[in-house]
């Protein structure tokens, strides 16, 4: 019986997944999140689609607005 490994999920994909989930849980639009983070709406959207290699400064800014620690956005799936 061979072991099955979970598919690789990049840090960029983890940030996107956690960010979308938390934003939805808080019932925030991308536009509102962007406003609160002082970032552009299209930038937030591109992060959520894993299209951007976002800086740690911006990940921290987003995490703070979402009420999370930066580590929460980078956490691997269980």
What does this structure look like?
The chain has 78 residues and is mainly α. It contains five helices and no strands. It has helices spanning 11-25, 30-37, 41-48, 56-65, 70-74. Helix 2 (30-37) crosses helix 3 (41-48). The radius of gyration is 13 Å and the shape is globular.
Quaternary organization: single chain
What is the helix fraction of residues, given as a range?
A: 55-70%
Secondary-structure-derived class: mainly alpha
Which residues form runs of ≥5 with pLDDT under 50? Answer: none
Strand content: under 5%
Biggest beta-sheet profile: none
Number of strands: 0
| C-alpha termini separation | 22 Å
Which H/E pattern describes the elements?
Answer: HHHHH
What is the arithmetic mean of pLDDT? 92
* Overall body shape: globular
Total count of helical runs of at least 4 residues: 5
Tell me the Rg in angstroms: 13 Å
Describe the SSE topology.
Blueprint: H1 11-25, H2 30-37, H3 41-48, H4 56-65, H5 70-74
Helix pairs in contact: 2-3
In a nutshell, what does this entry contain?
The protein is an all-alpha fold and 78 residues long.
């Amino acid at each position: 019986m061979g072991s099955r490994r979970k598919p690789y999920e990049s840090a960029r994909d983890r940030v996107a997944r956690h960010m979308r989930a938390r934003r939805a849980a808080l019932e925030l639009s991308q536009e509102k999140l962007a406003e609160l983070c002082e970032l552009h709406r299209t930038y937030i959207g591109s992060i959520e689609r894993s299209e951007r290699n976002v800086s740690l400064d911006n990940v921290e800014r987003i995490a703070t607005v979402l009420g999370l620690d930066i580590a929460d956005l980078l956490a691997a799936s269980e």
